[in-house]
């Protein structure tokens, strides 16, 4: 495997230019530039063997190989195998890819793995680990190239394509959490803490606000499926969107649905979120549908989907948590029905 080229930047150059601190979008005013700089800083901090581990060709089949389940083997270099400076640079790279809200969710998804390790009494000791998250880059990381990035581990799969000054793709973007609500004090987690709260609470507000006629259209199954669809597959399902149309909701319900979509958009850097929101508006909110599957109250398996021409949200809470509490284990994902990983479906 080849050593990664990072457009001639050395660590000394980066430091002399004042780039050694946290990367911000203010550098050149856009997310893609911030991500490129952060990736270059991280790569430069690694040794030759580590660079070989994290660097794959852009067209490698592994670029589209994603999953959020606990796996014994993954592509890339895990945080555990980095020294403190390298790990700090990796976290700065993660921060450059997400909003403050999204970064907070991602790091708490990671941190709760140590609680899972304790709750499961050491079962799968090499799997439940807050530093068992893997970073991989695809292609040459530079301002003039098209390159990809994967940051992945249990309950987290973030996949990006950057070209020049544009983030071409941010899908699949998966966040999961187990337990949904922490029932004990642990590290920075307080009793009753919730990481993906709004994704669930606003959805319940919406579905419980539907009248009988609306609910008959929106609720497409009395039992929720065991998980999100097409997990680990390159592209999301291409079946027609189901459920109740945005135009068939009243004004408060429409506001709730838009608010729920915004919860997911707020995981993205502002510039990317604005672009995705504009795409939704240009395609028309009237093209968006919301469907519900399963129970209408917490504690029993439930799921929902929100879909329009430019985005697909899937949420599933059907599994028990590590202490056996039913429906306390969330899987959620934002996908692109036009094609994930910057690859058009059928193209």
Which percent band covers the strand fraction? 15-25%
Low-pLDDT ranges = 1-28
Question: Rounded to an integer, what's the Rg over CA atoms?
Answer: 20 Å
Net shape: globular
Number of domains: 2
Report on the architecture of this protein:
With 347 residues, this protein is α+β, with helices and mostly antiparallel strands. The protein has 2 domains: 11-169, no CATH class; 197-335, no CATH class. Helices cover 32% and strands 19% of the residues. It has 9 helices and 13 strands. Strands 1, 2, 3, 4, 5, 6, 7, 8, 9, 10, 11, 12 and 13 form a 13-stranded mixed sheet that branches. Helix 2 packs antiparallel against helix 4 (84-97) and helix 6 packs antiparallel against helix 8. It is globular.
């Amino acid at each position: 495997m080849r050593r990664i080229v990072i457009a001639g930047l050395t660590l000394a150059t980066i430091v002399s230019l004042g780039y050694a601190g946290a990367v911000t979008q203010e550098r050149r005013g856009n997310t893609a530039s911030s991500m490129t700089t952060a990736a270059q800083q991280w790569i430069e901090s690694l040794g030759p063997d580590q660079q070989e581990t994290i660097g794959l060709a852009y067209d490698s089949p592994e670029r589209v190989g994603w999953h959020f389940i606990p796996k014994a083997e993954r592509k890339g270099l895990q945080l555990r195998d980095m020294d403190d400076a390298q790990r700090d640079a990796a976290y700065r790279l993660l921060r450059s890819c997400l909003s403050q809200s999204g970064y907070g969710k991602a790091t708490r998804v990671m941190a709760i793995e140590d609680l899972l390790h304790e709750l499961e009494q050491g079962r799968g000791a090499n799997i439940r680990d807050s530093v068992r998250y893997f970073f991989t880059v695809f292609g040459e990381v530079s301002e003039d190239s098209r390159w990809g990035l994967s940051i992945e581990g249990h309950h987290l799969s973030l996949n990006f394509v950057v070209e020049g000054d544009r983030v071409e793709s941010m899908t699949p973007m998966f966040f999961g959490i187990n337990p949904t609500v922490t029932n004990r004090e642990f590290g920075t987690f307080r009793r009753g803490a919730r990481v993906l709260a709004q994704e669930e609470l606003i959805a319940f507000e919406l579905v419980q606000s539907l009248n009988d006629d609306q609910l008959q259209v929106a609720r497409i199954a009395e039992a929720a499926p065991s998980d999100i669809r097409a997990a680990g597959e390159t592209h999301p399902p291409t079946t027609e969107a189901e459920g109740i149309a945005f135009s068939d909701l009243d004004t408060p319900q429409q506001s709730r649905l838009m608010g729920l979509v915004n919860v997911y958009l707020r995981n993205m850097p502002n510039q990317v979120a604005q672009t995705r929101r504009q795409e939704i508006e240009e395609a028309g909110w009237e093209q968006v549908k919301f469907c519900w599957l399963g129970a209408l109250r917490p504690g029993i398996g439930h799921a929902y989907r929100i879909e329009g021409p430019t985005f697909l949200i899937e949420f599933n809470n059907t599994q028990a948590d590590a202490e056996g509490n039913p429906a306390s284990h969330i899987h959620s994902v934002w996908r692109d029905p036009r094609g994930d990983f910057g690859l058009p479906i059928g193209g």
